[in-house]
Structures are given as C-alpha cells and as structure tokens.
Write a structure and sequence with these properties.
This protein is an alpha+beta fold and 148 residues long. It has 5 helices and 7 strands. The strands form 2 sheets. Strands 2-1-7-6 form a 4-stranded antiparallel β-sheet. A hairpin with a 2-residue loop joins strand 3 and strand 4. It is elongated.
C-alpha cells in the first residue's frame, strides 16, 4: 500500500522539521476550534436577554447570576391572538419553556436547553421567535468582520 500512495518518497523528502511543522499546524488548528468560542465569549456580568419576534425586539431583561430560579413571563401577539411565554433564569443561564401547542406543535425550542453566551440562541421557527444573549462589553465591539 505504501508503494501505491508513494509515501516512501514522501518520507525521504520530508525532514524532521517539516514533520514537526505539519504536526504543530494540525494541533493548532484543532485547538482553535475549541478555543475560539471561549475567546469570543464574555465572562462579564453585563449581559442581557433579548426576545425577538419576527425581527422586532419584544423584551430585554438583564441576565443575573443568581442561584435561585427566576421565572419571567412575557406576552406576545401572533396572528391576532395573545400568547404567553416564560423564561427560566438561573446561574447566569436562560431557558425558554414550552410554548402553546397551537403555535408550536413540536417542543424543539424547549429542548434546546440553557444558554449563557452571546453566540448561543434559542429559536421557535413556526412563529419566528428567538431568545439571544447580548453583551455590552468592549471586547465584542473590537471584533468585527474586518478583523478577519
């Protein structure tokens, strides 16, 4: 098999430094996959929960790190009817409870779990409702598309 792939010649032309360079680039690439969200994430306490329905902001709440479970109810209109949603907040994380089965037949949004970072989102597609976390830190303002 080595003869078929011509790896024998590859072994002859690569030096020890080449192998170390290739291995270090590969390890760095894999490491950055896991570290990028940690680098971008803000560990500060200046976070806000934003609820958006059909591209319009409905509510904005401050995300607090509290050991007690806090429930926040919010009302919204969809196709002329008023519905109520509920957020659960605990330990700096937020979760959206199950919405009415009339507007969201499947509970996918409630199965998305707890979110705590600005790159995470909870979405209820049938009604175009999303729950995101925004941070007002300088760290996020420094990173934009032109940085890359």
């Amino acid at each position: 098999m080595i003869k078929e792939l011509n790896l024998g010649q590859l072994k002859e032309i690569t030096t020890r430094a080449d192998k170390i360079l290739i291995l270090s680039i590969l390890l760095l690439s894999i490491l950055m996959i896991f570290l990028t969200p940690k680098i971008i994430a803000d560990s500060g306490t200046n976070k806000q929960i934003v609820i958006i329905l059909d591209d319009q902001e409905l509510y904005r709440y401050r995300l607090e790190k509290d050991n007690r479970l806090k429930k926040i109810k919010f009302d919204f209109n969809f196709e002329g009817e008023t519905y109520q949603g509920m957020l659960r907040i605990k330990d700096g994380k937020v979760k959206l409870d199950r919405l009415s089965q009339d507007i969201s037949p499947l509970p996918i949004h409630s199965n998305m779990g707890w979110i705590s970072e600005s790159y995470q989102v909870i979405v209820c597609l049938p009604i175009k409702l999303s729950v995101t976390i925004e941070s007002n830190s300088k760290k996020e303002e420094e990173i934009d598309i032109m940085s890359f």
